[in-house]
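Hello Y.,

Per our agreement to keep a running log of every chain we model this quarter, I'm adding this entry. I've kept the format consistent with earlier entries: sequence first, then predicted structure.
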Amino acid sequence: MAKYSDTIDLYDDEGKLLKSGVALEKVSPVVNPAIKKMMDLTKRTVAVNLAGIENGVKTGAVGGKANVIPGRTLDLSVVKDSDAIIAKIKDMVSVVEGDDTVIKNFGGKLLLVEVPKARIEAAATYDAAITSVAAATTYALIDQYNIGPFDAGIIKSAVWGTYPQTMDMAGANVQSILSIPQNNEGLGFALRNIPANHTVMITGRNAMQGAALAATFEQAGQWEMGNSIGPFERAQLLGYAYQGLNANNMVYDLVKANGATGTVGTVVQSLVERAIEDKVIMPGKKGGYFQFYDTKDPMLWNAYVAAGSLAATIVNCGAGRFAQAVSSTLLYFNDLIEHETGLPSCDFGRMMGTAVGFSFFSHSIYGGGGPGIFNGNHVVTRHSAGFAIPCVVAACALDAGTQMFSAESTSKIYGETYGKIEEFAKPLQHIAKAV
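Predicted structure for the entry above:
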């Protein structure tokens, strides 16, 4: 028996129907097989930059940032010898012969290593993936080139970066989608600590696929941190479905109707018209000239407004090809929604509050960075329950070079490795297929 009476139709990023009559709980991160596979791969998969290691030891630029050690160099043909190095890494990372360890080789320059599930199952955290791959890569190189004790430190620094002199692995040539646990600012924030630019590159600058992947990470994070327990579960599922998974083709329809000549304000009009037509809201009392609206299902209304927030972002930031407008779009779309209906805006006001601080910290007086380097773990953008970051990713996917930190400059390696995994590159199709 279905847990909820809600059913949805799932559409792709081109407005094509993928699955109809889907029970709402079938897209839950703890139920849907495709989402669970994505989360499993997120924890188990590590990228290794062999070309970066080769260049680092050749120039002495190891240990991250501007660190260069003249004279401490090694001339190693790491890329050329990648097959032999991969064999050594796989032998050491594997727990038993023939297990689920997988290494994908991208031209000898980049590797994508899936560590066996046994390593994660026997660990307290997901650290086990990146540490085992880093250690195996270090030893594989030392063994391959018969490196002595006085040069081994150069190899180690080229692989591990500044760790353990710094808590994180700054300058490392092994990378995970996930940040180290010490950088997670609270319980359950690991999946929300993924910069928007990473998601942009993984999904090939496709705004709706990027939003879907970001929403999947963000909403899986809501389950992990206990925000989707009891009556809150339906609220999060509806918001995730309508915003992230283009349920009932709402995001696509709103963008199509407003994409050519529309504005943030016309998206508000379109959304309210759709909500009235679908009987999600209905006219309530009048206050002078103002028409208030009522709803019998505030959770479904929230899902509609979440979808509208994403559509408004795509329309506005897509028209200007700028990511910077995402914070003001989220602020004023939701402000207009409240003024138009008298009902709560997305996330019951939290998205609007997030947008105020986000405008300041991303590019206003403070100007510390662009939207692409923010994530759901950031002190500025963490307050929305998973609905802000998908919009940020969509805006950055549509950006044409206005950011101080472009997706290509911060996250290129993620597109070249994780972007080759179909579940990450096209989450809309894979999640729908798995229901």
